[in-house]
Amino acid sequence: MEKAVLITIGDEILSGNTVDTNSNFIATELKNIGIQVTQIFTISDEIGTIKNTLKAAFEIGDLIITTGGLGPTRDDKTKKALAEYFNDEIALDEVTFNHLKNYMERRGRTDILERNREQAFVPTKSVVFQNHFGTAPCMMMEQDGKLCFSLPGVPYEVKPLIRDQIVPYLKEKFNLYYIYTRIVSVVGIPESILADTIEDWELALPENLSLSYLPVGTRVKLRLTASGDDESALKKQAEDEIQKLLPLVKDHVIAVTEDKIEKILAEILMERNLTISTAESCTGGELAKMITSTAGSSKYFIAGIIPYATEKKIEILKVSKETVDEFTVVSEQVASEMAKGCQRLFDTDISLSTTGVAGPGKGEDGNEVGTVFYSIRIKDQEVTSKLYMPHLDRLDFMNFVSQKIIQDLVGLLINR
Amino acid sequence: MEKAVLITIGDEILSGNTVDTNSNFIATELKNIGIQVTQIFTISDEIGTIKNTLKAAFEIGDLIITTGGLGPTRDDKTKKALAEYFNDEIALDEVTFNHLKNYMERRGRTDILERNREQAFVPTKSVVFQNHFGTAPCMMMEQDGKLCFSLPGVPYEVKPLIRDQIVPYLKEKFNLYYIYTRIVSVVGIPESILADTIEDWELALPENLSLSYLPVGTRVKLRLTASGDDESALKKQAEDEIQKLLPLVKDHVIAVTEDKIEKILAEILMERNLTISTAESCTGGELAKMITSTAGSSKYFIAGIIPYATEKKIEILKVSKETVDEFTVVSEQVASEMAKGCQRLFDTDISLSTTGVAGPGKGEDGNEVGTVFYSIRIKDQEVTSKLYMPHLDRLDFMNFVSQKIIQDLVGLLINR
């Protein structure tokens, strides 16, 4: 049990209507128990295609997980394809039907339709994992010691099924390889120069260790993955390599533990007992959202404000009208006054501000799309910077800028 | 030129480190010119796998688009696989090298490394589309009249390449089918009952029309897709079917034009000249971000506040301390006072508020994870609702709640 293949079924993703987030979640959960996803097929809901893909998947992997194609509506053909592929028949499963009835009754639905009843029909050879957050059950089939789990496609049904039922099942049933991952976050060095800098080290890595470059905004995450049988030997081996790597990139390292920049920030703020607040214009709430997406953020995030209209910047954050008139609202000066006003209003150690033009149209004052000024105030020190990102669309712009600010803040805090 | 196959190359997605957003963007852009993505392969960066997948892809589609695997670092083998698959060799392309040099010089980099120079090596039979936002060029290869484009994997390099170069190229080169899509957004009716309600209509649809159910939170989007040669005949045909559908689901329809709920809201607010503001606790900025993600939102979105700490709710939004003490901060009463305070502070027609427990830990006052109260104030009318979503993780919770509030607001505005 080493290699998994995911099959995402349904037209929502192929048509561009939905972003596939299930694969990401499943790949991460499997990686944590030492199972590597080696391929993902995203296919349409057609019996022939599903059967062909199951065949291809069983050739590559030991574990198949399909998501999607199990809803109560007409366009779902996955169950039929499963039964045909495994030479099985579909029949009503009483346990599943009772579970379904209870599920619907708890939600005040006593009108079990024929269509719902159909959801309790499963291939007779399948082992059912009941779905506690939806009406389509998860079915497990076996072939030559390889397993195939079929799940519905709704992310909040997929997550508990994987996390609470399938992962524990796999852990118990198989003797799994151990995987150990370390991530080193590096800033201020282009990927190609970084690669040159650490080339000798990388080439000398033991065979069971591999390195990946993962660029996130202007940061590069170096991910070192080690696999093997012996957990503690593996940890030591990876740790030894990290200790050799660090001197090569020392000035550029901003973190050697956590992965997401907002989590790195969380650790620093909690350790130093610092509070933070935000005043956002062009990022529209994304910066605050990013900070508050970390559990426990209420310990350091006090408040945020999004004074979108210029008059609110003046009224509430006390940005001076003269500054706006002289330099326009998208300016270094306004960013700075916003950060000061924010720090004063919310009484925090740190305040962050953004003012810019997310596009697609030019700013009121003719500022170019993609321009943003942002200030970082730490106590009575302040740094104001400019970014110009004309190639990003609106949402990517909001996200990139927010990432960059948190990254800059982490850099400033580390070097204080 | 009808069917496209996407190949996503690289371990970032398979390892769960990155969510694949490129496929979504490309599928949408292609759909707009009548090209349907029929399959997506997500594979690792190995020469054998890449070549096998190219073979499989050419069997299914007329157009192949690969992303990823073209960075300047060691783990990229895509170009080699391309050359082998097409029986070609890799050689330095002078035009591409000059473009690369200019690109780097404009960014103040005069130290062209060997590694960068390698990026100007392309298969000799390829047509190069220059990348204006990165160092890896896009290469087009041809086989039996079928096309294969290879792009880098960075989303902000992919988007302009697809939008500004590849889509215009395909439009000009091929006589493309016409695709017409209509979306009807339906709320307040479970998917299975909806399916029963419109079953006869759906079964009677002409063959060139197809229907999909796309659940988004508690809303279901019905997407009707028509394809054919004659643009105006197609529009009329789809329109006729929509007119037959609407009476069947009339009370549940919240929109028949735009797709995203925040765009539907934007249209209504601009049409009626209404302004809006937000006061968020548990959604942490996500609600404001969702509203401001629509271009032109500064016309109606005045400001938002995220009074995360309870004392800020009291201080700035004038929530009464007695209310907090009596009902706890996660309560109907506090949600209501937040909305009132927000409307007063920012002087808007509409205000929205949220207070809840995003988890994973319980709220300060013992409130259950997944509980949220939210208020919608429209002038002097107010509706406060409760949601209980214990199965969602933190980010999904913030997103789901924000979606639901905007959806409720749209419903209230439509029925006013």
List the helices and strands and how they pair.
The structure is a homodimer of 416-residue chains.
Chain A: E1 3-9, H1 11-14, H2 22-32, E2 36-43, H3 47-60, E3 63-67, H4 78-85, E4 90-92, H5 94-106, H6 114-117, E5 121-123, E6 127-129, E7 138-143, E8 146-151, H7 155-173, E9 178-187, H8 191-197, H9 199-203, E10 209-216, E11 219-228, H10 231-249, E12 253-255, H11 261-272, E13 276-280, H12 286-292, E14 301-306, H13 310-317, H14 321-327, H15 332-346, E15 350-356, E16 371-378, E17 381-388, H16 394-414
Helix pairs in contact in A: 2-7, 3-4, 11-16, 12-16
Organism (chains A, B): Chryseobacterium shigense
Pfam families (chains A, B): CinA, CinA_KH, MoCF_biosynth
Domain MoaB/Mog (chains A, B): 5-173
Quick structural overview:
Chain A is an alpha/beta fold and 416 residues long. Chain A has helices spanning 11-14, 22-32, 47-60, 78-85, 94-106, 114-117, 155-173, 191-197, 199-203, 231-249, 261-272, 286-292, 310-317, 321-327, 332-346, 394-414; strands at residues 3-9, 36-43, 63-67, 90-92, 121-123, 127-129, 138-143, 146-151, 178-187, 209-216, 219-228, 253-255, 276-280, 301-306, 350-356, 371-378, 381-388. The model of chain A has no long low-confidence stretch (mean pLDDT 90).
